Amino acid sequence: MLAGEFGPVKQWAIDHMVQVGCMFDAADLVSVSQAHIMGDPEAVGMAGADLLESLRRDGARVSIPTITDPRGVDLSYYAPLGQTEDMAILERRIVDAMSGIDIMMTNTCINYQTVMPPVLGDHVAFGDTGVVIYSNSVCGARSNFEGGPSALAAGLTGRTPRYGLHLDEKRQATRRYRVSQQPKNLTDWGILGAAIGKLSGSYWEVPVIEGIEKAPTSDEVKHMGAAMASYGSTPLFHLVGITPEAPTLAAVGGNKLPCETVGEDVLGALRSRFGGQGDKVDVIVFAAPQLSLVEMQMIADLSRGRRFKVPIFACTAPQVYPDAQRMGFVEAFESAGGKVLVGTCFYNGFAREIGEANGWTRILSNSAKIVNILGGYGYHPALADMAACIDAAETGVIQ
Amino acid sequence: MTTTLKCHVGIGAIVEGEALVAKDDFSARYDLDRIKGVFSRPDHALAGQSYHDKILVLNTAKGGVATAWMLHEMKTRGIVPKAILFNSANTILAQGAALAGLTMCDRFEDGDVTDLIRQGDTLIVDPKKGEVIIKNR
Description:
The complex is a heterodimer of chains A (399) and B (137). By secondary structure, chain A is α/β, with parallel strands linked by helices. Chain A has helices at residues 8-23, 41-57, 85-100, 111-114, 129-139, 148-157, 186-200, 218-232, 264-273, 293-303, 321-326, 329-335, 351-358, 368-374, 386-395; strands at residues 29-31, 35-37, 66-68, 125-126, 159-161, 175-179, 207-210, 238-239, 259-262, 283-291, 312-316, 339-342, 362-365, 380-383. Chain A has three domains: 8-168, 2-Layer Sandwich (Aconitase, domain 3), CATH 3.30.499.10; 172-272, no CATH class; 274-395, Aconitase, domain 3 (2-Layer Sandwich). Chain B has one domain (3-134): Phosphohistidine domain (Glucose Oxidase, domain 1, 3-Layer(bba) Sandwich), CATH 3.50.30.10.
């Protein structure tokens, strides 16, 4: 295959897997049941679009169900955001090429809520760190962070190098934390995840967490995992008595580890980093991860009877949007002055250029993940819970 | 006089260049203005500095999966580091290096690579041997 006997597509895929596998001492390849590809135009660029088109011309077709992460351009709503025609052209090129390779354009980072959640022990090749950490931790599936090219190679071959989280020994806990405050809302769960990610600080650390008194909802643990992965590059955590590989602390080797407490000192430091009470806000975003149907209902309920004076966006999955529309959630949010973006996520849609085009710097969100990312894109991000974000949309000021 | 550092076998070709060192982590998405070729995140230790043609020496990865595509896009546009050395790379960085044909190594035998290599050192990186030579000392 490496010599090209099976054609240029398989040669490209196996060459990529061999290079990565050698760096991480993979003994062989493992079969995977699904692949999930991140390929927004800002990240892929012209060079990546050329590569995808070239693979398609060479006859590339995926051999396992292969789906996509959020796109960067909502092709039904990009000019009003300040995205250019060039961005839309690049978006269309990538969508055409991926569709031609038989990739399913699901355009979601919550596929574990909307498409097909993996199951315990299921080897998969998922991109998007939030997808990977949820699938590993909550579902008990087995995936490394597979960036776009590696997920594509996995989709084309049905395999990925067997290293990292495909191996039992790499899934044992290496850091042990005790939570001293129970999170109360989605933002609190995100802050807790951010704190543990920051403390762990490496892809190769596996946190085990004690002290959570009640099993979180899927949305709560989604925000926790997405933030942990964002701040720490963390791909797996265990919640003792809650997640499937940690029925007990000892099951993941946590009883042999010293325990660190995650308390108000750590959580408060994170909150104050993204404070800003009393500041005027330019734009408000609910995204990262995309909103579930339940979150769409929450923003709809909070929006009724309001009149927003600050631009406010909610990014949701194409699988969620029709239900949210049918149930009146989209109308409730949009009639107050909000806008639902479908199949995209705010930070991977040329966020710097959008900010410059609209004069937005002070951004507010309830997502601990997105405020972490957007600092590098010229924004001054602030963090508040969903209700406070909706209030700020009406008053124009962070409460 | 030269110094030789041993590391894990890495990815890419042999390169020579000047070290740009920080005790900080790395993501192409989170930290860079890739058009200008500078670190743009205000609280990054290298904020405002150009990474073009430098050999970056950093701690580990941060954040998401975008770097796997972005290194390739940066390499094609020609505004890119010559190599990146880490204490510990993550899977995304390695995948990005493989796609881009960018030189990358990690896991140094003698300790913290951000201490072993100094700002401005001239380095030769040989990923296949798992070796970095400091030419100037």
